[in-house]
Amino acid sequence: MHKIIKLAMSISVISVIILVSFDRELNLGLNYRMECLDCDLRKKYQIQTVEKEKVFLKLPAPFNQTSTVLPQVVARNFSWIHPEVISENGFVKCTEKMNMKIKAKKHPPIEMINSEQFKDILRDKVGENGVIIIVTVDYSYTDMALNLFETSFLRFNIPNYIFVCSHPLATRTLLAYNITAVTLWNDQAGVKASEFQSQTFRQKARYKTMAASVVLEMGYSVLLMDVDIVFLKNPFPYLRCNSCDIIIQAESGFFTRNSGFYMAFPTTMAKKLHFLMLKSYNLSPEFSDQPCMNGLMNILEEQDGFKVEILDQEQFQNGERYFDKGKRMFASDNPCKDCIIVHNNNILYHANKVYRFKEHLFWMLDQNGYYSNPGTTYIMYGNPLDFDTDTRQMEDIALKNAILLGELLGRIVILPKFYCFLCPYTYCTEVERSGECNAQAHYDMTILDSITLGKYREHVFLKHPKVPLKIKNSISKPLLIRTKISNQESVMEQMNFTEVHHVFMSRNFPLAPTRTELKRWLKEFDHFPVIKFHSLYGDIINSNRTIEILSQLTLALKNVRT
């Protein structure tokens, strides 16, 4: 039963070359404690040991349990494998000197509740073609679920879906909108969002596999998808394969197939894949679904004839391909005629996902009249000037002014475009000092939410179809509050005053205007739903929150660049 495999790894400055011996059932790429039985090569490869010759390593993927070598695909893709242990044909050599044992502790399976109710709903909702869409959702992402329903299922008249929820609060929220949902887990971690790759994040990801496995065992096909997806066309005509076990979206990086969007057919091999994934989850709470799925598919393809088809990357785009490599900051950038779905992944945190969808008009959720309230009023402004190395600071100050003016006037801030440089996006690195970035290119929107209490709107807000025409068609002409900016007089001279309808200047210029002056100046524009400012550079408005806001914007800036 036991087979011997050697695994070579490099972790930061530690180079480790080992041979792994393990049972077939444990061959699932988990986090294990490995006990060195023969460490003759410790000095040569600088193997560091802790706790009396024990080291902690993470296996990258499930490995071949019937061969004495790692599969060639693993050796080829993991560039960190030490060249001394790779043979000419690309396989990793085995030597008895590097024998190690795996000690794995089994973990009890996660209990599914309401499984019979789930099966009854499945029978009722499954499509004529025997396909059901399964989307797992926790309470913190119910807004994403509502948006997915409106932008995709409702828009394309797709009734064969079920939202499976990890907490009753999520289910109740969706049922209130007459959306089909069922609670399959009563997980307290399902109330709030989980940090990416945290233990609770990985646990939630496993729920997808559990739900999909039930569907397959009932003899139906399952389109399993993450909640952060939008359909631009009905995908079903493009999800056909007569001889496949799985059709799956491509992904960036090492794990080339995305476990967040795939169609599995009720074949023996597709059922086996999901069974093995669930088996692995029960062995370790540290195991992620995407590495697990990719590794197991590699094994099953090589050994058992598992058939997988990767969807066209131009039609089924992930977040990196669509937003970053596609150089799309706003809804009007590079329209994609071939796109069928857009997966809003490759970005951290719920607020950033939502904001990115909003800037591309992929967000239709109108909770609390976010778009449609005719009584809400706004201010908007631009960032037309390039201050060279001071641009970032000047735009921070302008945003601070906008936030404080919004608070003073009881209006919501519509964000401008920002200058695009020093941010981690392909668009920014290829376009020299362009003023065409959205706020999320520079700021962590989670922090901006906390600064403004959500009282801001995306740059393309006024283009949204749910914003009333009364608001869209009632924007003041551009106003300017004149300020003096030290060492920037030459830049300020570039300002085109012909675009400005009215210029205001404090009685104590060059000092900032008082709050009383600001209110008096802007009172005559109260009847406009949108007051438009040419720009908001300089010392326009001060408050006891000034330092707090600027420091928080600095923090938001740092977070988005890490």
Key structural traits:
disordered N terminus; alpha/beta; 7-stranded mixed sheet; 5-stranded mixed sheet; 562 residues; Spore Coat Polysaccharide Biosynthesis Protein SpsA, Chain A; Rossmann fold
Short description:
The protein has 562 residues and is α/β, with parallel strands linked by helices. The chain is 30% helix and 19% strand.
Shape-level CATH architecture of the largest domain: 3-Layer(aba) Sandwich
Helix share bin: 25-40%
What's the shape? elongated
Going by helix content, strand content and strand pairing, the class is alpha/beta
Beta strand %: 15-25%
Number of domains: 3
Radius of gyration: 28 Å
How do the strands line up in the largest sheet? 8-7-6-9-12-11-13
- Write down the overall mean pLDDT: 77
Query: How many β strands by DSSP?
Result: 23
**Major sheet characteristics:** 7 strands, mixed
How many H/I helical runs? 17
CATH class of the largest domain: Alpha Beta
Give the low-pLDDT segments: 1-107
Annotated CATH topology of the largest domain: Rossmann fold
Distance between the termini: 46 Å
